[in-house]
Amino acid sequence: xxxxxxxxxxxxxxxxxxxxxxxxxxxxxxxxxxxxxxxxxxxxxxxxxxxxxxxxxxxxxxxxxxxxxxxxxxxxxxxxxxxxxxxxxxxxxxxxxxxxxxxxxxxxxxxxxxxxxxxxxxxxxxxxxxxxxxxxxxxxxxxxxxxxxxxxxxxxxxxxxxxxxxxxxxxxxxxxxxxxxxxxxxxxxxxxxxxxxxxxxxxxxxxxxxxxxxxxxxxxxxxxxxxxxxxxxxxxxxxxxxxxxxxxxxxxxxxxxxxxxxxxxxxxxxxxxxxxxxxxxxxxxxxxxxxxxxxxxxxxxxxxxxxxxxxxxxxxxxxxxxxxxxxxxxxxxxxxxxxxxxxxxxxxxxxxxxxxxxxxxxxxxxxxxxxxxxxxxxxxxxxxxxxxxxxxxxxxxxxxxxxxxxxxxxxxxxxxxxxxxxxxxxxxxxxxxxxxxxxxxxxxxxxxxxxxxxxxxxxxxxxxxxxxxxxxxxxxxxxxxxxxxxxxxxxxxxxxxxxxx
Length: 501
What we know:
37% of the residues lie in helices and 17% in strands. It is α+β, with helices and mostly antiparallel strands. The strands form 6 sheets. It has a 6-stranded mixed sheet with strand order 3-2-1-4-14-15, with no helix packed on it. A 5-stranded antiparallel sheet has the order 6-5-19-18-17. It is globular and about 100 Å long. The model has no long low-confidence stretch (mean pLDDT 91).
């Protein structure tokens, strides 16, 4: 054989070798990726061959599947439209799925290992069993009120969030982000139309796809004073201890004075801790924070849940809707020493302090629940396709204990005083003990302030029923009062709907 033919033979052998190697690579390592790819038409047809399970709350179906005449046999539908969008998410044909639809996908689709018995049974009966059903903790009444009240807020802002939880269990009673969106166009079998709908939402400057209740962090303003008050109560201060106050306070090293929201608020040289919380005394808490120190404030915030990066809200095990970590931020000078000015601002919920509405509700819930902070969850139960078998039932779990029962009792008394005598009066509910804390937080020099409210409701026996956080973004000076009003309405709805507890 001459040299040119030998070279051709070698090249052919090399090419065959590469082809063989690629074939083995595809079969051994890439098979699952190609098999489950959204671009695999056969996978899509197979996935939509079975009826996807329902997502329900309080006996009402929030996500269902109906039979169609197209190539994909079933069409996903969300009867509540935008009202439940940030909880349910959506299950599109080609786009990425979100929300409970994502975290419980295998159970809803019927492919979960938990449902293997149902699949084996189908092999013998020839039936095509639907996917499993996911039951949520939501109170339909509380969710409806949260959604409607946020949309009709008195300052007329477009962005905000509300979340309510049962302090005794951590069960989420309501979760709303504003603005919301209708998930139905996103699950259209017309994939081009679905992609256009998604692109429009992604380009909306108001960010309707954001789950603000869980993933948006903003300066919490005076609601953070409950954390500082907790630290004070654990370091020799009582409800009746007088702390320095006054109409103005200039921290050491800073030429910028801290003032109260109005001249009538704690102009005295000293006020009790109870009065400082009730009146929301900025000068008092700024000086108290400097006295306690940055490490003490940061540690107490951490004990309430700040800095936690891995909390999810779904089932009580791993997985669930992602949450953002709340942060206390830096309070130091460049050389690492404490900056008293930054610490003073942080102690009134400004500077670099950032909090999610979920964290605010958890603070209020732990105070109401005697110092026990329960892990929040959304999934109450997983039911078989025929609804005869429960594969999961939530068993509430304590997440942490940020304060003792005694400290929680003192904080509870002070938060009740805020609603009875202070800035949270609009949250009051007849026949129930309501506690809370409003917050007004600066957003930017040229923008209106954010309005916050965290609170709880107790029955006549002192049993906690609901804890809430409402945030109205850039709502101005009236924002915190309206947040308190909305918070009270949400808790009132949760009280009236025992099925949501």
